[in-house]
């Protein structure tokens, strides 16, 4: 039993996490004939709260309540894992990444997220504007324009062998590589790192 | 009856093909599934900004392993469902809507990728980050909702 609890509090390897995430695909299909996808929840929030007579938000969002319940579950799951199953040790980051990020001005490597960026103190600063407001906007705008995110395209779409999802996934990666390798350093300098 | 292209677009991401309506307690199963999913996100550190940085710097196999093995599991599961003609628990034939190719998958995908590397999160991990106590990510989530809204507002003016 103690071994089991130890195992639960360790970080889980990719070969445990990946298949578990993959099993969400058949679980949703069998439980309710539903395709896996998360970014759609953002659209449902728009349709529910701020439709503003925009045709894109005129649909029966009540039928998609399951999606909002699911993402609320993801939030609760994050809470449970962090406060009841958490890893007592510091996160182990690849040495090269840590060195590169330290050179960019990141100093805190203890948690899942660097407090240099992700803290309330940064909210009304240039850092907050880039990492929360701009970053979030690009995620919301981009996923909707692409018609899905990592779950809807990379996992659900490719799993069902749909080539448009492969195209989308390739461009997710292109954008990510370009931001990380080219734009991130000047952007961080610009906001005061 | 008017054919609303937005209705067909609604089946683009996470469509609900079930004919039987679900309310109240019937939704609890999605809550439980979401909780399990959120736990995996945190325990495998997928919600970590550092893990996403490692991925885009090619310094770690972790995220590639997670996404790759999730896809392999998904492919096998869907093939089994198709070949064994497995039905949903409501007894319906399982439907996986076709994703049509649009230019948005290129432009939008690229834009999302830029944001993914900044926030260290795709939409799923955003929710798990908030649950994990990184409450400032609420701002990121609100901005993502705003981004979705702006796309909706100008969707007919964008190349697609």
Going by helix content, strand content and strand pairing, the class of chain A is mainly alpha
SS content category of chain B: mainly alpha
Q: Mean pLDDT of chain A, nearest integer? A: 95
Give me the oligomer status: heterodimer
Shape of chain A: globular
Order of helices and strands of chain A: HHHHHHHH
**Major sheet description of chain B:** none
The whole-angstrom Rg of chain B is 18 Å
Radius of gyration of chain A: 19 Å
Greatest interface = A-B, 139 and 130 residues
* Helical run tally of chain A: 8
Instruction: Estimate nothing, just give the exact number of structural domains of chain A.
Output: 2
Q: For the residues shown, what is the average pLDDT of chain B?
A: 91
Poorly predicted residue ranges of chain A: none
- The outline of chain B comes out as globular
The largest β sheet of chain A comes out as: none
H and E string of chain B: HHHHHHH
Pfam family, one (chain A): Sulf_transp
Membrane topology (chain A): Multi-pass membrane protein
Transmembrane segments (chain A): 12-31, 65-85, 124-146, 166-187
Family (chain A): Belongs to the TsuA/YedE (TC 9.B.102) family.
Write the layout of secondary structure elements.
The complex is a heterodimer of chains A (about 190) and B (about 160).
Chain A: H1 2-9, H2 14-32, H3 40-49, H4 65-84, H5 95-104, H6 126-146, H7 150-159, H8 163-190
Chain B: H1 5-10, H2 28-43, H3 49-56, H4 62-83, H5 104-119, H6 123-131, H7 137-154
Give an overview in words.
- Chain A: Keywords: Cell inner membrane, Cell membrane, Membrane, Transmembrane, Transmembrane helix, Transport.
- The complex is a heterodimer of chains A (193) and B (160).
- By secondary structure, chain A is an all-alpha fold.
- Chain A folds into two domains: 1-86, no CATH class; 119-193.
- Helix content of chain A is 65%, strand content 0%.
- Chain A is built from eight helices and no strands.
- Chain A has helices at 2-9, 14-32, 40-49, 65-84, 95-104, 126-146, 150-159, 163-190.
- In chain A, α7 runs antiparallel to α8 (163-190).
- Chain A is globular, with a radius of gyration of 19 Å.
- With 160 residues, chain B is mainly alpha-helical.
- Chain B folds into two domains: 1-97, no CATH class; 102-160, no CATH class.
- Chain B contains seven helices and no strands.
- Chain B has helices at residues 5-10, 28-43, 49-56, 62-83, 104-119, 123-131, 137-154.
- Chain B is globular, with a radius of gyration of 18 Å.
- The two termini of chain B are 25 Å apart.
- Chains A and B meet through α2, α3, α4, α5 and α6 of A and α1, α2, α3, α4 and α5 of B.
């Amino acid at each position: 039993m103690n071994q089991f609890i130890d195992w639960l509090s360790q970080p889980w390897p990719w070969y445990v996490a990946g298949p578990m995430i993959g099993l969400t695909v058949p679980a949703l299909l069998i439980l309710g004939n539903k395709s896996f996808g998360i970014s759609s929840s953002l659209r449902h929030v728009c349709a529910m709260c701020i439709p503003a007579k925009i045709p894109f938000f005129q649909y029966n969002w009540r039928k998609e309540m399951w999606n909002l319940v699911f993402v609320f579950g993801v939030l609760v799951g994050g809470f449970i894992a962090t406060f009841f199953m958490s890893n007592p040790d510091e996160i182990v980051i690849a040495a090269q990444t840590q060195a590169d990020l330290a050179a960019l001005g990141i100093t805190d490597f203890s948690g899942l997220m660097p407090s240099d960026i992700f803290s309330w103190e940064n909210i009304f600063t240039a850092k907050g504007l880039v990492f929360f407001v701009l970053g979030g906007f690009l995620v919301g705008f981009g996923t909707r324009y692409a018609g899905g995110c990592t779950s809807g395209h990379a996992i659900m779409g490719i799993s069902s062998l749909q080539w448009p999802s492969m195209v989308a996934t390739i461009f997710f990666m292109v954008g990510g590589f370009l931001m990380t390798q080219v734009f991130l350093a000047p952007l961080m300098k610009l906001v005061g790192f | 009856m008017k054919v609303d292209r937005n209705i067909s677009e609604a089946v683009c991401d996470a469509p609900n093909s079930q004919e039987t309506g679900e309310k109240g307690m019937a939704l609890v199963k999605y809550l439980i599934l979401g909780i399990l999913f959120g736990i995996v996100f945190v325990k495998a550190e997928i919600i970590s900004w550092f893990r996403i940085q490692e991925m885009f710097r090619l310094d770690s196999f972790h995220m590639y392993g997670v996404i790759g093995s999730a896809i392999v599991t998904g492919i096998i599961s869907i093939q089994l469902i198709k070949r064994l003609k497995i039905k949903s628990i409501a007894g319906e034939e399982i439907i996986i809507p076709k994703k049509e190719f649009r230019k948005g998958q290129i432009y939008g995908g690229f834009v999302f990728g830029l944001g993914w590397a900044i926030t260290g999160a795709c939409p799923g991990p955003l929710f798990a980050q908030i649950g994990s106590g990184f409450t400032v990510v609420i701002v990121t989530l609100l901005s993502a909702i705003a981004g979705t809204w702006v796309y909706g507002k100008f969707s007919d003016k964008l190349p697609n």
